[in-house]
């Protein structure tokens, strides 16, 4: 009965918030139900247009754990010939004292694309957005219960008609443990076979923490053919404290029979900044006035506390 009361409370709360923010031209309201080690209902209002900014509001939890609340603000500013600059800020908290704060920015300076992100938290990815713990592109994970900070600066430079270089140095900090330095680079060759791309990869990290360093390099192939799913596969070789190990990453996405889908899988036993074995699958389809979604996540053999299995269903509609 407690579960039903909490779900009913969040549903009513979402309806009231939607009505309240209607004057701010609310665009999308969504409801979700997640299960990893406990049941977590959530309600979210997205794309609330308030002047030059867009606001997202989220309320979740309260069944077997703390109640969570979060908000995100996005803005875009045009500087004419210099391009457009986008900025996103996010804050999440719960009644047990967990928090995650973050800001991201992206823009361009002449022919160089620039981006930056800064986060401060006492929880790992997935604490406030369950599926983020299983995504291949999540920020680094930390061991321990201290406050962690992460700063990344990225640049993208076109070296020729078909050659693009991306480089992202990063700095991480975990209280009581120390500082770590990371670096990622991607050298992309476009249209190496018809519309397919090839990428040379390099990644390295020193932690923070003893035994958290690794270095890896490899190659990625991106299949981009009309009428076929979007497919990406990468083969890597990495070295960590455990020795030299091979690794693979793959992703697929597309639409079939009225359903959209996305799948990612990673097996990187040398990786020390995220669960080395993880996968996620998302399927969505139109239903009535909105869209129904189902997401599955899996993470094996990790010491970051990421649950081995996640199941999340969601429904969102515009008004």
Automatic annotation (TrEMBL):
This is Uncharacterized protein.
């Amino acid at each position: 009965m407690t579960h039903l009361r909490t779900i009913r409370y969040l549903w009513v709360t979402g309806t009231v918030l939607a009505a309240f923010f209607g004057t701010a031209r609310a665009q999308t309201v969504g409801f979700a139900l997640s299960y990893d080690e406990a049941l977590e209902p959530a309600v979210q209002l997205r794309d609330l247009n308030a002047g030059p900014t867009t606001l997202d509001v989220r309320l979740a939890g309260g069944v077997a754990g703390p109640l969570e609340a979060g908000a995100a603000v996005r803005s875009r500013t045009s500087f004419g010939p210099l391009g457009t600059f986008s900025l996103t800020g996010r804050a999440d908290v719960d009644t047990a004292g967990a928090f995650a704060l973050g800001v991201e920015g992206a823009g361009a300076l002449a022919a160089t694309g620039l981006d930056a992100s800064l986060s401060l938290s006492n929880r790992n990815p997935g604490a406030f957005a369950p599926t983020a713990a299983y995504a291949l592109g999540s920020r680094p994970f930390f061991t321990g219960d201290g406050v962690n900070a992460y700063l990344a600066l990225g640049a993208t430079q076109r070296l020729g008609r078909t050659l693009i270089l991306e480089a992202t140095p990063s700095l991480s900090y975990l209280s009581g443990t120390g500082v770590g330095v990371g670096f990622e680079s991607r050298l992309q060759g476009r249209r190496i076979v018809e519309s397919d791309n090839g990428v040379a990869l390099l990644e390295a990290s020193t932690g923070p923490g003893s035994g958290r360093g690794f270095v890896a390099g490899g190659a990625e192939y991106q299949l981009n053919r009309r009428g076929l799913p979007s497919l990406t596969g990468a083969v890597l070789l990495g070295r960590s404290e455990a020795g030299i190990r091979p690794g693979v990453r793959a992703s697929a996405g597309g639409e079939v029979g009225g359903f959209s889908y996305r799948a990612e899988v990673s097996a990187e036993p040398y990786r020390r900044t995220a669960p080395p074995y993880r996968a996620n699958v998302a399927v969505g389809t139109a239903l009535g006035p909105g869209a129904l979604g189902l997401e599955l996540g899996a993470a094996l053999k990790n010491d970051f506390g990421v649950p081995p299995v996640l199941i999340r269903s969601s429904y969102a509609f515009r008004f």
